[in-house]
Write a structure and sequence with these properties.
Helix content is 34%, strand content 28%. With 238 residues, it is an alpha/beta fold. It has one domain: Rossmann fold, CATH 3.40.50. Strands 1, 2, 3, 4, 5, 6, 7, 8, 9 and 10 form a 10-stranded mixed sheet that branches. The chain is globular. The mean pLDDT is 93.
Length: 238
């Protein structure tokens, strides 16, 4: 089978999918973490791979950036490929004083002011929750691997916040103490999962922080992303 955006056959996609935004990050994960890898999608260069991790099948499928893109791919994977769980793995920013660069954050709820749910099925914007079952697996895996994990609420924005004309005006809409992270996909993924009765989670590494202005080395970024990827993969096979 195939859809307008995915060329994979039904048997090409595992029931659990890791979903980075960047297609090249999907390629990196496939090449460095999976065995017996098969590329299962290249339509629009939105790369996807299925392989074995510790003897169990996992698919890594890029989503692109923003709610519209993650909405398309998550809907088609859940609805046409019988995917049960998607774990978004990506990067985020933060304006919370207790969040530092390279912290790993698990999103319990995402908030967005967007027309996406209204157009999709007449729903409303606001808060939407991730899967408690998936979250508990991710928390337990992080604990076993001695990787600190912060959990809390996420802002999903339709605009890359660093490009806003007034960052202070942006922040006024979101009390600092209520939100740990800012990104562009989680709300869309959680909304689609809830609509279709599926599971979704979002794990992120902080790469921009209002309170931590360090310049990260490529080695620091790679090490932190490896921690996040390891948590997601270990949770995916449990």
């Amino acid at each position: 089978m195939a859809t307008a955006h995915i060329e994979s056959q039904l048997e090409d996609i595992a029931p659990v999918v890791l979903m980075p935004g960047d297609p090249l990050r999907a390629k990196y994960i496939a090449e460095n973490f999976l065995e017996d890898v098969k590329q299962v999608n290249s339509v629009r260069n939105m790369f996807a791979y299925t392989g074995n991790y510790k003897g169990k099948r996992v698919t890594v499928f890029a989503s692109g950036m923003g709610i519209p893109s993650v909405g398309i791919y998550s809907y088609e994977l859940y609805n046409f490929y019988h995917v049960e769980s998607i774990i978004r793995i990506g990067t985020c920013g933060s304006f919370h004083k207790d969040v530092k660069l390279l912290d790993v954050i698990l999103s319990q709820n995402a908030y967005c002011k967007t027309y996406f749910p209204k157009l999709l099925d007449g729903g409303e914007d606001g808060f939407i929750s991730s899967s408690e079952e998936l979250n508990q697996k991710l928390i337990e895996v992080a604990r076993r691997n001695h990787i600190p994990l912060k959990t809390g609420n996420t802002i999903t924005s339709d605009v890359f916040d660093l490009y806003c004309d007034s960052k202070e005006e942006f922040r006024k809409n979101y009390p600092e103490q209520d939100f740990l992270s800012v990104e562009m996909e989680a709300f869309g993924l959680f909304y689609i999962a809830k609509k279709l009765g599926k599971k979704a989670a979002c794990l992120m590494t902080v790469v921009d922080s209002l309170y931590d202005q360090r310049s990260l080395t490529s080695e620091e970024r790679e090490t932190s992303l490896k921690e996040m990827i390891t948590i997601a993969l270990d949770a995916a096979i449990e």
